[in-house]
């Protein structure tokens, strides 16, 4: 499920809803060793799309307010959130509320983010991923050696858009972006 390379697609989606996008904040969790990979991928994706990526590394929710102050000071146009904050640590609603308070479009690949108030989610389809995990468990239980099983990456991806959040931050989602969505929360 390590999919930092999808940051480019997330930046493209943000640009489609906000064509003048030039600065994007990237919220990463400093306690997660993989945050460096996520930040590097975000900066590389930003450079290739003429978008300045502002990494903000935080470890505790007490730092969220100051991170959002930094976003405002740097005039970020949008925010990409590392999924660890949402899926594992349960801070999705808090981050969505702060983003709405600051009228900041957000995107993550945490599958529940749009449901708790985030604007968009783009990432692997969780159900398809769980089905693949079940296949692997079945193979191991039937005697396959885990070290000999191939590593697989997700093949199915979903775009979820929360129109209620879009309205709250004064954003109109273009019809071509809505047409790409697998699910729209109204």
Account of the protein in words:
With 186 residues, the chain is an alpha/beta fold. The protein has 2 domains: 4-123 and 157-185, Rossmann fold (3-Layer(aba) Sandwich), CATH 3.40.50.2300; 125-155, no CATH class. The protein has helices at 7-17, 35-48, 64-73, 84-88, 92-101, 126-141, 163-168, 175-180; strands spanning 23-29, 52-58, 78-81, 106-108, 120-124, 157-162, 183-185. A 7-stranded mixed beta sheet has the order 2-1-3-4-5-6-7, with helices on both faces. The longest helix has 16 residues, at 126-141. It starts with 6 loop residues before the first helix and ends with a strand.
In short:
With about 190 residues, the chain is of the alpha/beta class. Helix content is about 40%, strand content about 20%.
CATH topology (level 3) name of the largest domain: Rossmann fold
State the total count of DSSP E strands: 7
**Number of helical regions:** 8
Secondary-structure element sequence? HEHEHEHHEEHEHHE
Rg is 17 Å
Low-confidence region ranges: none
CATH-assigned homologous superfamily of the largest domain: Response regulator
Mean pLDDT across all amino acids: 93
List descriptors:
186 residues, 19% strand, alpha/beta, 7 strands, Rossmann fold, 2 domains
Topology, pairings included?
Blueprint: H1 7-17, E1 23-29, H2 35-48, E2 52-58, H3 64-73, E3 78-81, H4 84-88, H5 92-101, E4 106-108, E5 120-124, H6 126-141, E6 157-162, H7 163-168, H8 175-180, E7 183-185
Parallel strand pairs: 1-2, 1-3, 3-4, 4-5, 6-7
Antiparallel strand pairs: 5-6
